[in-house]
Design goal:
The structure is a homodimer.
Chain A (H helix, E strand, L loop, with lengths): L17 E14 L2 E8 L2 E7 L4 H6 L7 E10 L12 E12 L16 H6 L1 H4 L3 H23 L3 E2 L17 E3 L7 E3 L5 H9 L4 E9 L11 E10 L3 H20 L8 E4 H8 L13 E2 L26 H4 L3 E7 L7 H12 L9 E5 L5 E3 L7 H10 L7 E7 L1 H18 L10 E5 L4 E4 L4 E4 L12 H6 L22 E6 L2 E8 L4 H10 L4 H14 L7 E7 H8 L30 H6 L2 E3 L3
Parallel strand pairs in A: 3-5, 6-9, 11-17
Antiparallel strand pairs in A: 1-2, 1-4, 2-3, 4-5, 7-8, 9-10, 10-22, 12-13, 13-16, 14-15, 14-16, 17-20, 18-19, 20-21, 21-22
Chain lengths: 611, 611
């Protein structure tokens, strides 16, 4: 037997018990004739005391860091108690010990603050995984997994496995493909998500489905994307948008409770996509803080499509300041209590918005000094009344700093969104341990693709339009006759029955009510530029299924890796994945991908075609 | 809102409640002016009564089988109650109804005894999945999943996800590979199992790991194999064989209890691999019945390797009956109460063993008649005393039929194993609802591969030899100098620290205590004919991990699909998989695998190389 107890469980009640423990040597400390060892396992750390009688053996078989040992001995009360650990009241008086396995000196220290760089840690991931920081992340991940499963089980969802070797239907992202040996010249694809399968399960009457499942996308990896990632994938029948929202708000609340001991009882705000874009400049706003965007000028084109936002904007008329007058869009945020920013600080902000990632030509600002005076970077063009009018529009108060960006609509809105987040970060308004949920609703169903002058699905081709827009879709030809005026096409304003759930400025889940009518699904495929034959070839099984009594249904998928990362207070999903890949899609520990044998290629009826 | 209740929940207590139900039309029955409809969903069936007032609408919008409808109405007591279903006391007096979706006439009937053949059912799997028989299977599968997760959670196991895009290390089975776009000319492989990852997790100190996970093997598909299949994959640290056996016997007992309401309290028998082969002719014996094999002659070569089985076999000396005298092996089973088999029946059995799948030249038999006389198919050569001696050796009693096969050891033992199972089947001794577990232990570590004149791992290259055999392995050269006498090589008798768990004659799980010492692992790779460089290239990460304090560990993997099938009383795993593939590895519903675009091939830097 290797152990009678773990290294995390012995307490004062166990005194005088004879025990056997096994684990890793965390530290070795010699004090004269006696030696203290901290023995570590998953469950904790227990102090071992090797007396003088073991010195001969210790000299012959010295213990080193990360050695695996087994000890037998008696539990004894410590004179010098350690209140920081559960086993801190006791130590083991070792009678005998065995070295089960030695360890070379690790390439980095197995500690919270390791000296290992990213590359080294990834190469020796099995050692990195020993670090408490990483271990806590994986434990949190399992806790989220368990909590989600319990909630979904209690709500009548079945975990039903869907296949991994499926058919390539490259729509949005690129598929990973798998050559078939038995079917020469043919390929499977790895699923980008189980989307169509879960819909088929609804057609089959399973009513409530879920899976915590790997998905695959062969995309160029931006920071913090992985070629394989995990979703909590769910689908329900006979539901409307509110049913889904209520069910999965419940899921997130439950996870908060089980994993973070947070009772998230407040109402989760719901805003439309248009409002999100108008007020925050992006579709996943962080609402842990306000600092909404003020639209100083109604944008000329594009966004937001229609009415509802018009109000008495201060820059609608010529001001004489060309930067504002010529701009498509002028946006402002009001940063509380930042009027005392120094010249150096404002200069630094100007440089910040000029970085290529942000790409603005400059930044204007208005300082609402505490003494009531107002000072701007464009005083030449604006008198005090104009400035105060502008400040009033932004609801600025004494002591506030107004930051203004002007330029092309899309870029400017995006830049202002970034600036808003940056200012919040600098002001400490984005706290890792504060959690704020938000639903974003009513996304556009389509996006316009300039290159091919046609519509693309913003979510995916299975998302239903809002009920009121179904006829707009059915009764109009999707072809865009006049590319310049695509915004006037009836399809431009069709809203999707889709919803995203956002946590602290990150989309953690998204879904939609699905199309379940064959005619509408065919129209959708046509709108996306697919011929009837192509639609049949790629999605014949789904169109077929819709002929035999498909129920109304909808669902959602949560990005499991990201959800865990945010709950763990981290921006990086990689630290929440046991064996992640780097930005080139490589597993540096395994050294994968790698070349394969000629024989394997030959059996698969493929050969290399290197450039 | 689509429904206030499901079709499975309304009872006599709900009478007079106004309800909304949604579901599928199972049947439509017209009785004069009124129409009865059975409405079906996942939860049950509820009877609907459409009165005369709805006839106009029903005529305009007639209901058909598998239509999806929503109805509103009042719960009412049925005059003609149906005690067979939970909702049988009530019916819904329909006030209004809406057709949510129509259905074409399904290509086969959605019933337990469907008229659909296998191919049709697979093509329209989404309809097949509606059948109660299939639905019950998937429900059972989910119940097993849930039960296993609960047990493992309660026992401190973490579900930790391991990667799907890994490195190709073709050892046993063939890998499915995935071309990497970002790493030209290189490939990922899909995991045949998470074996090395779970071992790394033990090295990382996670102590108890599990996953219910898809695995992939590109093998020619025998009946009832799938290219992707699911394992319950588990690993533990600081354990010996008995720890694993106890833990996972507990898992199976728990599943029996949760899923089948069976308290499996009896001791699970443990036999060695040698005993299994000697007494049952295979390594996964069905012990729901006895009928052990009697070894009438000690086999000349090969099996079983050594001592322990010698007893006074009746055919060790010449008998004059050439069939027995010339045979390497002569095996007998004693079939209770079958002495009255007619000539026709014994002739039929003779034909049965001659079939190519069995491949024997003939079958001898001895009838122990009820009147005390003995009659055999080789009376010419054996007198009554000899026959009675033989019968006594087989523990045959009056009324029994002894069946005897003679020939080459391996084939004969295999054939006798099949004949034993066949006779048990004919006698009704293999009951679907009787469950009998068995552990098979002490497998050989190596098998001899004639073609390459070297050892192959019987289980996998990470399985440890028995502690007492470690030195045999370390201290001997694995090279086989004399191919003919490979059995005399010390490696031939090394036993593995491996165990299989068998249920009703099916291996449902298998595992081993792993090698955790770098030196031993290197020796194992060498024994399997791998050069140092090759071992380093393929498994460098594991050998590396073993340098930094790898703990003793071991684990097991259950074939989840098969376990479910057996618990469901079926021989076929396909009925327990939502979307299975056929014997050519095709998903006929999706029509996958399929050709992919030139552009995709080009991006992946591969081209076809068809023969």
């Amino acid at each position: 037997m290797f152990r009678t107890h773990t290294c995390g469980e012995l307490k004062i009640e166990n005194i005088n018990t004879l025990v056997t423990l096994a684990g890793w040597v965390q530290t070795v400390r010699k004090f004269g004739a006696i030696t203290f060892v901290d023995l570590r396992d998953r469950y904790g750390i227990t102090q071992l005391l090797f007396g003088e009688n073991l010195n001969t053996q210790l000299n012959a078989q010295p213990l080193g860091r990360e050695f695996v040992i087994r000890v037998k001995g008696k539990v004894s009360e410590r004179s010098n108690k350690n209140k920081n650990i559960p086993t801190g009241d006791i130590e083991i008086l070792v009678d005998e010990f065995t070295i089960l396995n030695k360890s070379a000196v690790p390439p980095f220290t197995i500690q919270d603050d390791t000296d290992g760089g990213d590359d080294l840690r990834m190469k020796y991931r099995y050692l990195d995984l020993r670090r408490n920081a990483v271990k806590r992340n994986l434990e949190l991940r399992y806790a989220v997994n368990r909590s989600a499963r319990n909630y979904l089980h209690e709500n009548g969802f079945y975990d039903i496995e869907t296949p991994f070797l499926i058919k390539s239907t490259p729509e949005g992202a690129r598929d990973f493909v798998v050559p078939s040996r038995m079917n020469q010249g043919e390929f499977y694809a790895l699923p980008q998500s189980p989307q169509t399968f879960k819909q088929l399960l609804m057609v089959s009457g399973y009513d409530r489905y879920y899976q915590i499942v790997k998905c695959f996308r062969d995309e160029d990896l931006r920071a913090d994307r992985q070629p394989e990632f995990t979703q909590i994938d769910c689908e329900m029948s006979f539901v409307e948008q509110d049913d889904i929202i209520n069910m999965f708000e419940g899921l997130v609340r439950r996870i908060f409770k089980d994993v973070k001991s947070i009772e998230y009882n407040e109402t989760v705000e719901r805003i439309t996509w248009e409002d999100a874009m108008w007020n925050y400049g992006n579709d996943k706003p962080d609402i842990r803080f306000g600092m909404k965007i003020n639209n100083l000028k109604f944008p000329l084109y594009t966004f937001p499509a229609k009415t509802g936002y018009l109000k008495n904007s201060p820059l609608e008329n010529e001001t004489g300041f060309k930067v504002f007058d010529d701009a498509e869009t002028v946006l402002a945020i009001c940063v509380s209590n930042a009027a005392d920013y120094s010249r150096k600080q404002t200069d630094e902000l100007i440089e910040w918005v000029k970085r290529p990632q942000i790409g603005m030509a400059g930044l204007a600002f208005v300082k609402m000094n505490k003494d009531g005076t107002v000072k701007s970077s464009f005083d030449k063009f604006f008198n005090e009344d104009q400035l105060k009018n502008l400040a009033g529009f932004c609801n600025a108060e004494k002591g506030d700093l107004i930051l203004i960006l002007a330029g092309r609509e899309e870029r400017t809105r995006k830049a202002m969104s970034e600036l808003r987040l940056e200012m919040a970060k600098r002001l400490g308004l984005r706290k890792d341990d504060e959690f704020k949920l938000l639903w974003v609703l009513d996304f556009p169903l389509f996006e316009y693709d300039e290159e091919s002058n046609r519509w693309v699905a913003r979510h995916h081709p299975f998302t239903s339009p809002k009920p009121s827009d179904i006829n707009v879709m059915i009764n109009n030809d999707p072809v865009i006759k006049n590319a310049e005026k695509y915004l006037e096409h009836p399809y431009a304003n069709i809203k999707a029955n889709a919803y995203d759930i956002v946590l602290n400025g990150n989309e953690i889940g998204g879904g939609s009510i699905r199309i379940y009518q064959k005619e509408l699904q065919e129209k959708m495929f046509a709108a996306l530029g697919m011929s009837k034959e192509e639609a049949q070839h790629k999605f014949g099984f789904l169109l077929g299924a819709f002929e035999y009594g498909a129920p109304p249904h909808g669902g959602i998928a949560f990005g499991f890796d990201r959800l865990c990362a945010i709950l763990g207070g981290s921006e990086s999903i990689r630290d929440f994945i046991a064996f992640p890949k780097n930005n080139s899609g490589r597993d540096v520990m395994l050294d994968a991908p790698s070349t394969i044998d000629e024989k394997q290629l030959d059996e698969l009826s493929i050969k290399l075609n290197l450039k």
